[in-house]
């Protein structure tokens, strides 16, 4: 307490009145000590307020500039990587050729919208259906399939089945399969070559566009998915060993028309006749 009092009196005294103050054999000459660079540190060590009163450099009251938090730095780095990835993706899209060009030249595809029963623009309607289920995707192109031969055969199969249970479903596929499907329809002979046969050895369709995108070629930036009309008819529970739908009657003369993943609320369907489905629209998209 006495030391603090001596310090205060020494600091407040005018320069000409400051005296050399000693304290026993361990005395300190404060006037000489003020000229030393360690004086400020000495005073602040005892009392930060004394250091400022003694002519030491006052401390700033303004807040320090906070360095960016680590999470923000990491997020910024992530954003830069994402931006770089987008640029690379755009370049890859430009380099990749669309598989639809030859089909457009053969007039098997059309990009001209038309009015149907309940919408003025059929292409935009299909686009909105897809984007609602796959919001992270960006649709590049959308085409209507115009194959009169397929339409005629599909109509004949529908009459032969005698069923009006027809659904609009999605079918994801690789780009290299697109020309064959547009020209010749869906072929169940390809079943099981790249994907499983959970519901049987047939052609697969789904009410979920997001689920269908799993079966697109992920090595390409441009991916393809079909929107198709499918005659699902009466369905039964599917299994991997089926090469035909299960029998429907006791005599084994009538079979179901398709197999599904869930009898009460089916999402995925498998059909076993090649012309039991018809491609109606083709979408090219990227994620």
Protein described:
This protein has 287 residues and is an alpha+beta fold. Helix content is 34%, strand content 18%. It has ten helices and nine strands. The protein has a five-stranded antiparallel sheet with strand order 1-2-9-5-3, with helices on both faces. It has a four-stranded mixed sheet with strand order 4-8-7-6. A hairpin with a 7-residue loop joins β7 and β8. The longest helix is centred in the first third of the chain and has 26 residues. The chain is globular. The two termini are 74 Å apart. About 18% of the residues have low confidence.
Beta-strand proportion: 15-25%
Order of strands across the main sheet: 1-2-9-5-3
The ordered string of helix (H) and strand (E) elements is HHHHHHEHEHEHEHEEEEE
What percent of residues adopt helix (DSSP H or I)? 25-40%
Mean pLDDT: 78
> What structural class do you assign from the helix and strand content?
alpha+beta
Q: End-to-end distance, in Å?
A: 74 Å
The poorly predicted ranges are 13-37, 42-68
Describe the largest sheet. 5 strands, antiparallel
What is the number of beta strands? 9
Count up the helices. 10
Spatial shape: globular
What gyration radius follows from the Cα positions, in whole Å? 39 Å
Domain PARP catalytic: 76-287
InterPro entries: Mono-ARTD/PARP, Poly(ADP-ribose)pol_cat_dom
Protein name: Poly [ADP-ribose] polymerase
EC number: 2.4.2.-
């Amino acid at each position: 307490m006495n030391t603090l009092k001596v310090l205060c009196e020494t600091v407040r005294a005018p320069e000409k009145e400051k005296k050399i103050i000693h304290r026993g054999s361990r005395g300190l000459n404060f006037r000489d000590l003020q000229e030393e660079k360690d004086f400020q540190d000495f005073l602040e060590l005892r009392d930060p307020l004394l250091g400022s009163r003694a002519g030491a450099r006052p401390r700033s009251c303004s807040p320090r500039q906070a360095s960016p938090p680590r999470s923000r730095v990491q997020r910024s780095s992530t954003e830069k990587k994402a931006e770089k990835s987008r640029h690379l993706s755009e370049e890859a899209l430009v380099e990749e050729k669309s598989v639809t060009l030859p089909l457009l030249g053969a007039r098997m595809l059309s990009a001209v919208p038309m009015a149907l029963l309940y919408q003025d623009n059929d292409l935009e309607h299909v686009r909105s259906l897809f984007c609602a289920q796959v919001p992270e995707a960006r649709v590049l192109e959308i085409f209507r399939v115009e194959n009169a031969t397929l339409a005629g055969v599909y109509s004949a199969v529908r009459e032969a089945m005698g069923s009006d249970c027809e659904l609009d479903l999605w079918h994801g596929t690789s780009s290299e399969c697109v020309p064959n499907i547009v020209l010749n329809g869906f072929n169940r002979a390809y079943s099981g070559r790249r994907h499983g046969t959970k519901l049987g050895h047939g052609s697969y369709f789904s009410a979920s566009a997001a689920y269908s995108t799993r079966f697109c070629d992920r090595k390409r930036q441009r991916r393809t998915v079909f929107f198709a009309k499918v005659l699902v008819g009466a369905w039964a529970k599917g299994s991997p060993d089926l090469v035909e739908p299960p029998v429907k009657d006791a005599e084994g003369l009538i079979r179901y028309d398709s197999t599904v993943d869930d009898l009460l609320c089916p999402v995925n369907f498998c059909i076993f006749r090649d012309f039991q489905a018809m491609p109606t629209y083709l979408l090219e998209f990227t994620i």
